[in-house]
Amino acid sequence: ASAQGGLMKYFAPK
Amino acid sequence: MLEARLEQANLFKKVVDAIKDLVQDCNFDCNDSGIALQAMDNSHVALVSMMLRSESFAPFRCDRNIALGINLTSLTKVLKCAQSDDILTLKAEDAPDVVELVFESAESDRISEYSIKLMDIDQEHLGIPETDYGATISMPAAEFQRICRDLIALSESVSIECSKEGVKFACQGDIGSGAVTLRQHTNVDKPEMNVEINMSEPVSLTFSLKYLVNFCKASGLSNQVRLCLSNEVPLLVEYSLANNSHLRFYLAPKIGD
User: Fold this and answer.
1) Rounded distance, CA B182 to CA B209, Å?
2) What mean pLDDT, rounded, does chain A reach?
3) I need a surface site. Which of B39, B72, B111, B206 has the fewest CB within 10 A?
């Protein structure tokens, strides 16, 4: 099975 | 103050309809370039990024930056009061407690005025890096919607693979498997049916279909959808709107096997 990661790993807060 | 007049209230209705199941409370950031919105869903897996440029409105006036914190359920209730052919004007003061929505009938002399109380929403903005995507696919929005809706009947996830053969949407579930492959295709008579694939490297990624089906609620906004993929980065699903405006969705990939 594959796991769902979050977006924060790719997009940093401004 | 803000005063933004949109010839077609329907456009704003469709945008809000397309995102309201993904995000609930959003800041509509207004400045002289237009009205923008960026919001993540509760699970921080998907992100909505909307830009309605000032050119989409006539007239458009926004003297200073104003963030309109609006609950989309409330906004939907008010937008239901607009007829699809109505002209919509959004109005707000510089430090507003409410946003005003005025609906005018183009054919009769009816003017409807509504207001929505604003919320203070502390929302962090994410920086989305400029990405040279490995593969970009433009295809009919209805076709993408159809594929996502068909595959979710079999599985929670879809793999999107782009290679020289074309783009393959594949899934595996308890009852069996499914796959749809599209190749580059040009329809001279109906360019909205074109499938265009630009690939600089093969990509293969897995995504949750639940979110993709949700993004496809924007299908009524544009004939074509653009999918931008690179290995190990979020998928970009873009619906282009008139006047360089857009509605974009980003979705984090599923990782590992």
Assistant:
1) 18
2) 89
3) B111
CB-based contact, B116 to chain A, within 8 Å: no
Please report, for residues B18, B129, B143, the alpha-carbon distance to residue B251 in angstroms, rounded to integers and kept in the order given.
Answer: 15, 14, 19
The mean pLDDT of chain B is 96
Query: Quick one: tokens of B134?
Result: 């490995």
Contact residues, chain B, for A4 at CB < 8 Å: 43, 45, 208, 252, 254-255
Prediction ipTM score: 0.95
- Measure the CA–CA gap between B217 and B32, rounded to whole angstroms: 29
For residue B128, the model assigns a pLDDT of 95
Chain A neighbors of B229, CB-CB under 8 A: none
Q: B122 — contact with chain A (CB < 8 Å)?
A: no
Hey, are the CB atoms on B255 and A3 less than 8 Å from each other? yes
Of B47, B233, B257, the CB nearest to A2: B257
Instruction: Give the mean model confidence (pLDDT) for residues B55-69.
Output: 96
Q: Which residues of B154-191 are buried (b: 16+ CB within 10 A; e: fewer)?
A: bbbbbbbbbeeebbbbbbeeeeeebebebeeeeeeeee
DSSP state letters, B81-105? TS-TT-EEEEEE-SS-SEEEEEEE-
**pLDDT tens for each residue of B125-148:** 999 999 999 999 999 999 999 999
Give the end-to-end CA distance of chain A in Å, rounded to a whole number. 33
Other C-beta atoms closer than 10 Å to the C-beta of B215 total 26
Using CB atoms, pick whichever of A1, A9, A11 lies closest to residue B127.
A11
Of A5, A7, A11, the CB nearest to B255: A5
